[in-house]
Fold:
Amino acid sequence: MDFWVQKRVWIIGASSGIGEGLVHVLARNGAELIISARNETKLQELKDAYSESEIESLSLDVELRSTLAEKSEKAWNIYGGLDYVFLNAGMSVRDLVVESKLEVERKIMDINFWGPVAITKKLLEKRDANIPLHLVLTSSLSGKYGVPKLAAYAASKHAMQGYFDSLRAETYGSGLFIHIVIPGFIRTNITVVGLRGDGSQSGKMQNALAEGMDPATCAKGILKGLEKGKDEFVVGGSERFTIGFNRFFPGLMKKLIRSNPLQRIKKLRKSIFRK
Ligand SMILES: NC(=O)c1ccc[n+]([C@@H]2O[C@H](COP(=O)([O-])OP(=O)(O)OC[C@H]3O[C@@H](n4cnc5c(N)ncnc54)[C@H](OP(=O)(O)O)[C@@H]3O)[C@@H](O)[C@H]2O)c1
Structure:
């Protein structure tokens, strides 16, 4: 993985799951890292684990929009610029729309959508048009189709897709590269620390995720896709084929997804792909 040697990489959402997986692989492969999230203790542990590597921590809360320009400026200055920025921080909410408070839905939009947008605006200001800057957004299968009980989460990832597809088109040929990564079911704590519609913590890992890909394998898949320069790609098990299924059989997909969609996607992938 020589590709990553001395690449200046900022990972936002680095303290667990997919982001932590990225930290492990990149730290071992010579990248100059800045790691960000709210959990400072975890960031320090990661920094200590790779004391031989170039790794700096910069704690931040993507929900606190007014702080993000200053944090982005700081991150930019640590190594005198950035090559790759992983806009990976995310939070889930799982509940029916009628059971979900508006403020909880807004929180999800703030973390998953407005945070990455605010950081991007500052980076666009800082970047030099002649030097490549890669923005890597972590979207979701539910950025491609709606899923019951995931309305706000799906909305945040659909918004991310639309916004960053538009930015990619606007800036084509200018040295800005936008990569949208779509993880399938990855075994992280996102649903455990995720919220219910009333704002309380779920505390439960969803079965589909418990049986999903491990974050280290996901991180390697993400880095492989980036090394190939892909604009958009899916990393996961056979649930990834639901994107094609939705594109070619949208009516059938809508029927399948109406109740117990994760169970149905699992059954579908078993029957078609025998996994
Ligand atoms: N796991 C999956 O199956 C799956 C599937 C599709 C997409 N995704 C996406 O993948 C990304 C990573 O999620 P994950 O599955 O790895 O979950 P995770 O283990 O819960 O990691 C989420 C990361 O985001 C950070 N974060 C959350 N809220 C934040 C905030 N307000 N400010 C700063 N950082 C914040 C967390 O750090 P702190 O708590 O320390 O702040 C943590 O580092 C998310 O965007 C998620 O939507 C995951």
